[in-house]
Design brief:
Length: 87
């Protein structure tokens, strides 16, 4: 099945944003956690390593999900593949 140029652009943008957000997820999950003990500074009154392990990564995960949903809704509307709203 051949995809039209519009569908190819849609999927290219979708894959690009997915790759970027997965890279952010990877950095937050593994890189920051790995080097957290070396990051000895206070953040909102707590050591950064504790804050990142207890709260920071979870907040960033929720922000990743929120941003992806907003971006995909906009992309769906731009390419005419948005779901019809039910009343």
């Amino acid at each position: 099945m051949q995809l039209s140029e519009t569908h190819e652009r849609y999927w290219r943008k979708n894959l690009n944003i997915t790759a970027v957000l997965l890279a952010v997820w990877f950095v937050v999950t593994f890189v920051v956690s790995f080097f957290a003990r070396d990051l000895n500074f206070t953040f909102f009154g707590w050591p950064f390593s504790f804050w990142m392990g207890a709260q920071g990564s979870l907040v960033i995960y929720v922000l990743i999900i929120w941003y992806y949903a907003q971006y995909m809704n906009k992309l769906d509307n731009e390419h005419g593949v948005a779901e019809a709203e039910e009343d």
